[in-house]
Design brief:
alpha/beta; eight-stranded parallel β-barrel; oxidoreductase activity; 42% helix; two-stranded antiparallel sheet
Length: 297
Amino acid sequence: MSVILGLWPIAGVTTVGVSRDDARSTIAAAIDAGIRRFDTAYSYGYDGESDRLIGEFLQADRDSFELIGKAGQRWTPDRKRVFDGRPQTLTADVEESLRRAGLEHFDVLMLHSPDPDVPLSESAAAIDTMRRSGKAKRIGICNADENQRKQFAAVAGCDAIQCPLNLLQQDSLDTLIRPAAADGAQCHVYWTLMKGLLAGKIGRDHQFPEGDSRPKYDVFQGEKRERAHRIVDALRDIGSGIGRSVASLSIGWAVSQDGVSGALVGARRPDQILETADATALDASTLAQIDQLLADV
């Protein structure tokens, strides 16, 4: 299955009105739908909410699931998210994430972001040390450019990367994903639905509630947002002929790209993940239609 459930939305930091019951129901629905890969991070939630939630589901049958964990971002006391790639902090945060989840290891452990104040070689070595100690089976880096990926790999190897990719933002295909895949790394892409904009559920007149972070992104503003709506309108027409939703097509396009090995998809409610859980790669004809519509709009 191509979909990886990303737990950031149900951690309740940048999304509004997420209850613990909704979060549990969403994870349970994902598992029932066949999803077996989950993505968490030390900073997903002010108090490790995503670690704690996913741990409830994985403890009893750990070997049936793949858990991706990340360290390198954390919250200050006044709730500002900061980079911290110091080896001692990375080690402490990974150990704390595992304690929260009640688990012994991550299947994939990733440096969440390069820290501009810490040599990347030091952060990479710390992540590698945790792999060697059994806290992770595989390791990688997120939110890095190709040069940083190579620096990380030179020290620790690099089994996986995470980066954005969607119908509106495709630069990473040539600049990072394909080179990384050629070196043997798994490439997990996020923002495939661009925070809901490419899911077909946000209308032109949609007003975001206070505290929602999405309006700060440029694709939610002005002409870029209008172009996204035109793309969604065209996707809806394509999907109506083949029985696929706008969200399923958006994810399907991403996982059809060479080098992509999985799509991180967030959800706040069970119905959201059920709509996208079985999103699969698209056939050549559908891909051609989507490529043409992107050129036309």
